[in-house]
Amino acid sequence: MGILKLVIRRLAFGVVTLFVVSLAVFILSQALPSDPARAVLGREATEENVAAFREKFGLDQSAVRQYTDWLGGLVSGDPGLSYSNGVPIMDFLGDRLKNSLFLMFAGSLISIPLSLAIGAYAALRRDKLFDNANSVSSLILAAMPEFVVGALLTVLLATNVWQIFPATVRVRPGEQPWSDIDGLVLPLLTLTLAVTPYVSRVVRASMIEVLESDYVEMARLKGLSERTVLWRHALPNAIGPTFQVIALNIAYMAGGVIVVEALFNYPGIGLALRDAVREVNLPVVQFLAMFISLIYVVSNLLADVGTILVTPRLRTRLS
User: Fold this and answer.
1) Global confidence as pTM
2) Domains of the chain: total
3) What is the CATH number of the domain that holds 241?
């Protein structure tokens, strides 16, 4: 019952957070100096065309009416029409959302287990060659933004040094995102190298603290192998504090995927957001901003629940 109350409380806080974000997104979009109607139709548009455009998309209504209509559409699953072509946003972005979610899911599926393994082994080999090499390499990778990592991988693996993988993703409209496996290697590798250093360093620090605890020492005195001590006793107790970092990096991946998609020409929300900003297509920009915010809220909620489920002390406190 205690965990259920926590989930309900976190859900309520998440709803409030999304409401505040929606206000900020709408106010900032309204504060832009350019007129969306003239920006989309061009300077040659007549006053009649501009008026018809504003009426079609509700721009002739008051700001309060525009916000309530937009928020109601978001809640009901109908975020409105795209300014550029008049197509419903969900139809316009449906495939792109699926492609981006697949890229995020695949990147998380690779980077999270890899981070746990690297962090745990680095803690086990504390101050040894692997640990020192991992510390230096993780610091270097953490200091490099995604577009730099992606550009370096492109130079090394797709162009000048070794031409192993294609430099761009070749997924046509309507195709599944995994239809070009070779093209996905560099985007996934870029996301993995962007996320792994942060999580692995937190896992290492948490593992070192657990490995010095009394119950781990007792397990060693019982004659258990070091591998059993690590994977059965130490890692389950050290993984709790890392859930928050994992959640933050999954949410960070939602923003980082935009850069990666633009770099490798991946047909996801990154290219859609770039085009929408250039075309002053405000409904698409607003929807994608709320979509990324939703990922942040959901990932943090799951991290809170996961931390409690794997931490006996917290479960006891809430029971």
Assistant:
1) 0.82
2) 1
3) 1.10.3720.10
